[in-house]
Amino acid sequence: MLRPVIQVRRAIPTARWILVRRLATAAGHDPSKLRNMALVAHIDSGKTTLTESILLQSNYLSSAGTVDTGSTTTDFLPAERERGITIQSASIPVKWKNWTFNLIDTPGHADFGMEVESASRVVDGAVVLIDSVEGVEAQTKGVWRQLDRYGVRSRIMFLNKLDRAGASFGSSLSSLLTNRLHPKPMALALPIASFDPQDYTHGEPGVQGLVDLVNWEIWKWNEEGQSSRHKLPQNEEDFKALDFIPTTHPILPHLIPARTALLENLSMFSEDLMETLLNLSSGPSAYATVPASQIMPHLRAATLRNEILPVLCGSAFKHIGTELVMNYVGELLPSPLDVIEKVPVPNAPLRMLAWKVGWDKRKGWMTFVRIYSGTLTKQSTILNSTRNQREKASKLLLLYASQAEEVDTLPFGSVGVVLGLKYTRTGDTLVSLNRGSDNSTLQDIILPPAVISASVIPQSHSDLAPVQDALQALARTDPSVRVETHEGQLLVHGMGSLHLEIVESRLKDEWNVDFEFGKRRVSYREGLGSGDTTLEDPTWTTEIAGKRVQVAVTFNIRSLEDGERGDPLWDGNVVLDQHGTPLRSPETYNDQTDPMSNVTNGISNTLSNSPNTFLPLSRLQVQVAGYELPPDVPVSVLAGASAVILRQAIRQAGMGPLMEPYIRMKINVHEDVLGKIVKDLTEHSGEVLDLATDSTSASGEEEALEPHSEDGVYVPPKWLSPSSNLSSGSNSTSSKFKRSVQAVAPLSQMLDYSNRLRALSGGHGTFEMVNAGFREVSSARKIEILREIGRGA
Ligand SMILES: Nc1nc2c(ncn2[C@@H]2O[C@H](COP(=O)(O)OP(=O)(O)OP(=O)(O)O)[C@@H](O)[C@H]2O)c(=O)[nH]1
């Protein structure tokens, strides 16, 4: 008789306490065992819940908090706990087996995309979650693109919430293919909905166990979330003697075919594995005999090369699948040594990137860093090579969400916090002062575009200075908040309505300043006009020390085509030198002695403020073809000259098309108000893309009953997630009347949508929105916008 090999967890004690352990100090630091990884996903997919479950399994917590009671470790801001959403990324070191994970829980709401951007910049791998009722959603694709942007190639997909009614493993897997997220998702685990013979295929929604196809084991979870693990036999004949699963369970005949599909698909990427499979003895059970130790290296290699997407599943809420996720993060995701593009050199001089800046009343500025080479020692003086400023690293911390542990060093590969840095901003590179160290800057973090602004009205004149200081401090911790004074008015720009709402409440709660936000306005952009941009006389004359000086700068300017930059949401500009090499923006590089730095400064001034509309220009490529500067004239003159000459060229081209931000919306309502919702959307310039019944949204298609292969990807049978039967079965009553409306609309028309939806749906409707990029407006709308911004006739 086969016995469980391991009883994993003890009963959960009631008190919730934290075991702080020293994890990443230099002694015993082995970078090959480090996994710098992020949890990323569409909003509400369960990232924070999975983080909490990971902390519980790794003995960091003795009981898990929940998002719903506002008691999780990583969502510690009051605004996060009140709303049950993640607003800022929180990093936490986790010890699991002989690995250390630096785990970053990121927000899912698109308004806080900056946090995903900076986390993606510093991690080497990611676990991407999907709610398996919904399948791939708009922001799943958004975070996928963000990971792409920073070359985070190795990912594991976790199909979460399999306990929910309507959840479907097969449809979620198919949705990875239909949404072109990855051509080769490979299921490493299959769900077992129930072990109860009465309940296999049409029981309560749920998941009670998982089959680990690689380790050839079955995991079972009881009601308390305790797991047990059972080895599967190598011979199918022995399935008849199993005592941990009913021998009539319909999943058993599918196990060897599922493992066979996995190994055969994987062998397409490994000649060695193919050789192993070819040498297997014949017979139905042959693929069950391949030990995990012969599979794992090939899985790891294919994951590191992004040839396959390993797929796991479970229910973070019930802790089902968490240990498997942790095992596979350790086994498959890269260590800092594996990511050669990021120059991992343990013994080289110090080089690190500041990926986030936080503020704490007691600790002051907290700079989150990732060490790319060498070791950072406390009390050392270092150079911020982005800003050419010396900085003193007075204290070093490992941060366990809001709890800190002081350490003496941060070794190669690690992620930690530095106190005492005065000038450093998100995206800056810091290096050692040693001669010979590499001062070049690391790849910067890209700021997402601001799409909305609000005027800030201090309560009284004496509140103005504190409000300005608080805004500057907040903008330092969240670079996607931009502050400007325009025509005497203080304006704050953000990534969406919720972002501005959070900015408002954080300023009041954390900085205690007195102000009101005025009317919100969306941000517009101007494209390049259709006229000629070649100036007959590209010169600028000025006076220096009483002498007339003539400076020439020539530009080649053109409009970028839709999608030319890959990311459809991108709305920036490209500035190139005469060889076609991109020039760095003045925010990240500003050296007044460098002629090209002055030229980019001038270009940036003009691009942020079109001479035609005073709106920012967008989707332009500006190439600096050359410049002429008389001898003995300071190079700083080039900044003014470039700004004026470029402005003339843009004015000569004439006013270009105007663009405004669009959003993609998903609105969930009862069927009886569907007509009103659609009418309202149409009246507000929205375009309805899809009207689905809520429970079929995972892929929008009927699921196949039998296991099948889609483009060489094994998709298991439908009944594996019996809860999905409920959605199409006769006992589905409430979900039948729920509808989900997908639409795109101009953001300007949706600023008060929560109030409108409440009125239209009698309080029942819910909605979410993600950025859909800037779109060109019609000529009628152009006239409206020009009037709104005071440029109309
Ligand atoms: N049924 C079920 N609910 C879950 C599961 N995981 C998370 N939830 C619930 O889903 C909601 C969102 O969970 P979170 O963990 O906050 O999701 P998130 O992805 O971190 O959310 P954001 O960071 O705000 O995007 C909460 O109500 C959770 O209790 C699961 O496995 N099953």
From TrEMBL:
In terms of PROSITE patterns, this protein maps to: G_TR_1 (PS00301), G_TR_2 (PS51722)
> Its GO CC terms?
mitochondrial matrix
InterPro entries reported for this sequence:
EF-G-like_DII, EFG_II, EFG_III/V, EFG_V-like, G_TR_CS, P-loop_NTPase, Small_GTP-bd, T_Tr_GTP-bd_dom
Q: Which Gene3D superfamilies match?
A: 3.30.70.240, Elongation Factor G (Translational Gtpase), domain 3, P-loop containing nucleotide triphosphate hydrolases, Translation factors
- Has the keyword Hydrolase been applied to this entry? yes
GO molecular function annotations of the record: GTP binding; GTPase activity
Which keywords does UniProt give here? Answer: GTP-binding, Hydrolase, Mitochondrion, Nucleotide-binding, Protein biosynthesis
Q: Where is the signal peptide?
A: none
- The segment annotated Disordered runs over 693-716
Q: Which domain of life is it from?
A: Eukaryota
Q: Which SMART domains match?
A: EFG_C
Question: What is an example of a Pfam family matching this protein?
Answer: EFG_III
Q: Name one GO biological process term.
A: ribosome disassembly
- The Tr-type G domain covers 32-337
- What protein name does the entry list? P-loop containing nucleoside triphosphate hydrolase protein
